[in-house]
Amino acid sequence: MQYDAFYQKIQEMLEDIYMKAGNMQLEQKDFFRETDARLEENSAFIAEQTADWTADDWKNLFYCYIKHGNLEVDKFVARKLAETCGPEFLRSCIRDHIILLENDVYSTGDKEALYGSDVLLTAVKLLNRLQEGGADQEILEAFSACAAINEHILYELAEYLCRECANHVRSLILDETLDDDKLIALISMFVSQERRDDETFKAMKQRFKHMPDDHEVKSVFAAVFGDYGEPNAILPLRRYMKSLIETYQKEKDQEIFSKIMMVSSVIEGLGGSTEDLMP
User: CB of 186 within 8 A of CB of 172?
Assistant: First the structure.
């Protein structure tokens, strides 16, 4: 069976699950859980069709997913890639296309560049889905090279870094030369993983304290502290809110007022009080 035909068979198995996802009845984790279960039910068929496949066959199926615009490669393909190719294949998919990230990959009209960036993104997505490492250097280089406009790729790279490269993430958070978009991606993905990491939180709090109060990213930090749920953020948040109130009293800017309300909500959500700060 050719790769395209086999790919289509797999998609037919998952058609009703795709329909549920399209109707917004499945969150991403539930979607992957259901697709994995369906493919496991059909494991005998998959094993029969791929019994004599080599490493190159599994690579070609990986590329077939991308050719069809499906960047969420199924887990059974990932397992076979790991068995037959080892970690080097996915690392090379990232390494060979890093240079493409320096520009907006979707506005150039360059089909080769678009395909290459999709190969890189699919490899990173696969590592994130499998919760695996092994490509730290490639991911760090890709994150450094990635233009902010390639936001979807930037966040996948940040997710990997937050899971596998905590020390590097702390250093990046403390780096005052880091682009704002990359800083936001890191702190957002750190909190989204719902894992406690006191050292990374300390780095975030330190960066927050030294950031000018009129810096746009500071309000993002405040919201992230609320999502993280750490009461130790209350004191610096109160200082920030006090500064915002003083600025609002001078400028009467509605955007600043909205930030005050947001920060107040975060402080109260963490168990603090803001009544004494209000004029």
Answer: yes
Sign of CA dihedral 102, 104, 109, 111: positive
Q: Are residues 40 and 108 in the same domain?
A: yes
Backbone angles phi, psi at 272, to 5 degrees: -95, 180
Amino acid at 176: E
The answer to whether residues 203 and 172 touch, using CB atoms and an 8 Å cutoff, is no
pTM here? Answer: 0.90
Gap between the Cα atoms of 201 and 187, Å rounded? 9
C-alpha to C-alpha distances, 154 to 4, 101, 150, 188, 193, nearest whole angstrom: 30, 9, 6, 12, 16
Q: How many distinct structural domains can be found in the chain?
A: 2
Query: Residue 213: which of 178, 186, 242, 184 has the closest Cα?
Result: 242
Render pLDDT for 122-134 as a digit per residue (tens, 0 to 9).
Answer: 999 999 888 888 8
